[in-house]
Amino acid sequence: MKHTFSIFAVLTLALALMACSITVNLFEPTPTESLPVIEPTAASAVTAPTVEIILPTAASEETIIVYFMDENRFVAAVEPYEVAVTRTVPAGSDLPRAVLDAYFAGPTLMEYTQGLRLVSSGFTHVRRLEIENGIARVYLGGVCANNGAAYSVANLIMKNLSQFPEITYVKIYDENDSNLDPDSLSSSLPYCLEP
Fold first, then answer.
1. Which pLDDT tens digit goes with each residue over 68-82?
2. 140: Cβ–Cβ under 8 A, 6 or more apart, which residues?
3. Which of 58, 110, 116, 150 is buried deepest, with most CB atoms within 10 A?
4. Dihedral sign, Cα of residue 184, residue 188, residue 190, residue 195
């Protein structure tokens, strides 16, 4: 009975395999036999989806506004004396500092021929800029030589920094870190820039 059942099971398995069109070789292939090669067809080919990742591109430069004195307007007493020009700086720059550095770099040759001037009052650069609680503290380098002029580098520093909403007051310090009113909630100058 077991023998009949085993034959019956093998026959059933053989019929099931033929019905599924699957060929099973229960024997090891001999060296002269070759295994069937299955070639992919267009219907059986599966293509992977193409994934394109688009990363946002960051601007490599930013435009800043820098104010210089217009000598022609100043001589004619036509306000405002300050004229805006643009410069580009690397993206992500400290913009208030970049504006002051661009100011001390001076106008271009073309801007100079149009009457724009760097009023430095003897100062040559910004040593340090601190902005905290709406107060910008500008520490200048060089040697103050304002000679009592009513219009000085202070006017232009204040004009340049007033474009930033985070700055309410500007305190300018000379080469000795001196300022007449360093602790008040108002803008103030060193003694040498007072008219």
1. 999 999 999 999 999
2. 123, 125, 126, 127, 153, 172, 173, 174, 175
3. 116
4. negative
